[in-house]
Amino acid sequence: MRRKIAGIAAGIGLMLASGTSVLAQELTIFWAEWDPANYLQELVNEYETETGVRVTVETTPWSDFQTKAFTEFNARGDAYDLVVGDSQWLGAGSTGGHYVDLSDFFKEHNLGEVMAPATVKYYAEYPGNSGKYWAIPLEGDAVGWSYRKDWFEDPKEMEAFKAKYGYDLAPPKDWKQLRDIAEFFHRPDEKRYGVAIYTDNSYDALVMGVENAIFSYGGELGNYETYEVDGYINSDKAVAALEAYKELYQFTPPGWAKTFFVENNQAITEGLAAMSMNYFAFFPALLNEATNPHAKNTGFFANPAGPGGDQFAALGGQGISIVSYSQNKDEAMKFLEWFIRADVQKRWAELGGYTCHAKTLESEEFRNATPYNEAFYQTMFKVKDFWAVPEFAELLQQINQRIYPYIVGGEGTAKEALDALATDWTDTFKKYDRLK
Amino acid sequence: MTTDVITRLDPQSHAAKRGLSDLSIRNLFIIPTILFLIVFNIFPLLYSLYYSFTDFRASTNAAANFVGLQNYRELLNDPFIWNNFVITAKYVIVSVAGQVIVGFGVALLLNRDIPYKGLITTLLLLPMMLSMAVVGLFWKLLYDPSFGIINYALGLGTFEWLANPDMALYAVAITDIWMWSPFVMLLSLAGLSAVPKHLYEAAAIDRAGSLYTFFRITLPLVAPILMIAIIFRTMEAFKTFDLAYILTSQPTTEVLSIRLYKMAFQEWQTGRSCALAYIMLIVVVAITNIYVKYLNKVKER
C-alpha cells in the first residue's frame, strides 16, 4: 500500500516537474472564432517548427469575445499570453493595466513606419498622438462592398439603368450612385433586393455601417483630442449621412433588422441583394464556390465617396497585445519579434491574413493576389475608427439607442437623433472628466 | 413524550460505534449547505449591494469610490431604463396571460377520457424540454419573412415578425407561450384531476350549466395550483433573457435583463449594474409577495 502511494506521489511530482518545463515552451493567443484565426494558427505552427515553442490560438464566438476577454483580464488570469483585441479595447486595456506597454519595442523596430500608418494609429496607439503603443497591428480590416457582377453587366439592366438615371451602370463611385443602384435593383416581387447593410444594434455593427456614411460625407464623430462632440456628430454633414443610410435601409431584403457579417454575406450567397457591405475579412468566403454559388459573379469595391469627394471607411481589424498577467511575457515578446519580420508578414498574407505590413501591402504581388486585395489596399490608407476610450461600450450603447429607432423604426428625424446623441456623449465625457 | 426532534442513537448502531453523535451527523449535513449558501449566494448578494453604492468598474484595476445613492438616482431618472421597465411589464403580462389561457385550456381538453391521453400529454410537454437558445434560434428561422414557415402557413407574404418594432415583442411572447404553456398545462392537469368527482355529479343533479360549474367548482379548486404556476412563470418572464436576446435586437424588445447584461458585461459599469440588479430584485420580491398573499387567501377559501 505504502509503495503504491509512493508511486502515485512520484508520478504526480514528475508530472508537475515536467509540466512547468513544458509551460515555458507554450504560448496561448486569444482571438475570436473566424477564418483569420485559423490562418493565424497555420502561421504559428511554422513558428513552432522554427523555435520549438508551441503556440495555440484559442477562440470564442464574436458575440462573447469582449466579455470573455475582459472577464479574464479582470480576474488577472494568465490563461492567455497574448490577445488579438479589438481596436476599441486599447483604452480599457492600457489604462486598466491589462496590456504590456510596447512603446520601446515599437521604437526599437521602427514599427511606426514598418506598418501602415493608419493601422498604427488605430490598432496600437493610445491615447491618440501620445507615442504610447500597446499592440502590434495584426489583422488589418475595414468595411468594403461586394456586388453581383452578373446583374451589373447584364446588357438589359445596363440599358434600363442608363435610361432611368442617365449614367452607366457600374460599381458606384459615390453614395448617390450607391443609392440609385440599390433602388434600381430593389424588386421585392422578384425576391431581389437592392442592398444589404449592417443593422445589428447589439454591439458595433450598425455603428460601423453608419460610420461609413458619416466619414465619407465629411462628418466626424467628434474631436478625438478635446472630446468635443456637439457640432461634430450632429453637424449637417453627419445628419445628411445618417439620412442617406436610412434611405438605403428601405432597399434591404425583408426582415433586415438585426444583421451583421453573417447575414450580409448570406445576402450575396443566397442571391438576395445586388450589393452588400462587409468587412474584407469575410470576403474570402464569397470567392469560395463551396460557400457561394455565385462566387464567379461576385465583385468588390471600396466604400464610395460622399458628396464632397471625401472617401473613408470604418475600420475593423485588430492588433496583438501581450497580457500583463501572463507568465510568459519574455517568450511572448520573442514571438512578436518573429511576427513582425518581413518574410513572416508576407507568409501571413499568403495564408489569408490581412497584413498591415506597409511593404507587403504595397507590393504588386499582394495587390493582385485576389479580386478584393486592391480595394483593401486602397481602403487601408483611408480608414477612421470609433472612440477607443475605456468607456467606448457606453458610447456605443448610446449611439445605438439613438440611431436604431430612427433607421429601422422610422422614429423622429436624423437631426433629432444626432442632437440627442451629442447630449448623451457630452454627458458621458463629462462624467469621465474628459470634458469640463 | 419526549419533545426532542433528534432521536437518540442506538448505542449498538454502526454510527454510534464510529463515534458519530446525532449532533455531528446533523452538522455534517447542514453545515456544508449553509456554507455553500453563504459563499455562493449571501456573500455575493451583500458584496454587490456594497458595489451598487460605488462607481466600480470590473474592467479596470482602479479602486471603487463610494458614490452614495448616485447610481440609483441616475438609473431611476433615466428614461431608457423606464422604457425597459415598461417593455418588461408588457412582456410579462402578454406572455403569462397567454400561457395561462393556452395551458389551462389544453389541460381542460385533456382532462377527460380520450385515447392516447398519456402519449398526447407527453408530446405536448416537448417544447418545455428544449433549451431556450435552441428554441430562439429555430423560431428565428420560423419567423423569417423570406423563407419562414409561419408566413407561408398563414399566407402572410413577407410579414416582418421580428424586424417590425411594434410586432417584435409579441413575436418573442408567442415563442415563450409556445414553450411554457405545457408547464401551466401540467400543473393545471394535476389540479383538475384532484377535483373530487362527486362535486360534478352533485352539480349535474342540480342541473347546473357548464359555465356555472366551471366558475363555481373547477376554477376555485384549481386556483391555488394555477397561482403557483403563475408565480413561477411571472418570475421567469420578468428575468427573461435568452429568447429576446437571440430572436431580435429591437429597442422595443430590450427587456430589463438584456439591459442589465449589456451594462454589466459590455459596458463594464459594474457598480451601476449592481444597483439595477437590486432594483429588479426588489420589484420581483414585491410582485411575488403580492401573489403569495393572494395565494394564501385563495387557499383559505
From TrEMBL, chain A:
**Subcellular compartments:** Periplasm
Q: Where is the signal peptide?
A: 1-24
One GO cellular component from the entry?
A: periplasmic space
Q: Which InterPro entries match?
A: Bact_solute-bd_prot1, SBP
Tell me the keywords, alphabetical order: Periplasm, Signal, Transport
Against Pfam families, the record matches this protein to:
SBP_bac_1
Question: Principal localization?
Answer: periplasm
**Which family does the record assign?**
Belongs to the bacterial solute-binding protein 1 family.
Designated name of the protein: Extracellular solute-binding protein
The organism's taxonomic lineage, starting at the top: Bacteria, Pseudomonadati, Pseudomonadota, Alphaproteobacteria, Hyphomicrobiales
UniProtKB/TrEMBL annotation, chain B:
Write the record's keywords in alphabetical order, separated by commas.
Cell membrane, Membrane, Transmembrane, Transmembrane helix, Transport
Indicate the transmembrane segments per the record: 28-50, 91-110, 122-142, 167-192, 213-232, 275-292
Q: Which Gene3D superfamilies match?
A: MetI-like
Pfam families xrefs: BPD_transp_1
Q: Which CDD domains match?
A: TM_PBP2 (cd06261)
PROSITE patterns linked to this entry: ABC_TM1 (PS50928)
Q: Which domain of life is it from?
A: Bacteria
- What membrane topology is given? Multi-pass membrane protein
Q: Give any single GO term for biological process.
A: transmembrane transport
Domain ABC transmembrane type-1 positions = 85-291
Keyword Transmembrane helix appears in the UniProt entry: yes
InterPro entries the UniProt entry points to:
MetI-like, MetI-like_sf
**A single cellular component GO annotation:** plasma membrane
What family does this belong to? Belongs to the binding-protein-dependent transport system permease family.
**Name under which the protein is recorded:** ABC transporter permease subunit
The opening ranks of the lineage are:
Bacteria, Pseudomonadati, Pseudomonadota, Alphaproteobacteria, Hyphomicrobiales
